[in-house]
Design brief:
The protein has 119 residues and is mainly β. Helix content is 0%, strand content 60%. The chain is globular and about 45 Å long.
Length: 119
């Protein structure tokens, strides 16, 4: 069974840092583009950052210069280093991956990890 599992969320003070991880497991032939999304209470899920298999990255304007997305293809793992966190970053962060598995090529989602920025 293919799954994505996020970890690393928690409570942090404004200005602090967190590092999220997303691990893909199961029978996976290739992990293509991976993405982080955030969903704040009462709001739609929004794209935060993306990274291709080759390491090309893209960021939402709201996180540029503060967040860094990276991946380790050998470990089928993606990371999101979040610095200078603000209260408005508070959200559930979801991992998304476009993967080639025994079910073909499709998107998979993790269960989400809560990030709360508060003093």
């Amino acid at each position: 069974q293919v799954q994505l599992v996020e970890s690393g969320g928690g409570l942090v003070q404004p200005g602090g840092s967190l590092r999220l991880s997303c691990v893909a497991s199961g029978t996976i032939f290739r992990v293509n583009t991976m993405r982080w999304y955030q969903q704040a209470p009462g709001k739609q899920r929004e794209l935060v950052a993306s990274i291709t298999f080759d390491g090309d990255t893209d960021y939402a304007d709201s996180v540029k210069g503060r967040f860094t997305i990276s991946r380790d293809n050998a470990k089928s793992t993606m990371y999101l280093q979040m610095n200078s966190l603000k209260p408005e970053d508070t959200a559930v962060f979801y991992c998304n991956a476009h993967m080639f598995t025994t079910d073909g090529v499709r998107d998979y989602w993790g269960q989400g990890t809560q990030v709360t920025v508060s003093s």
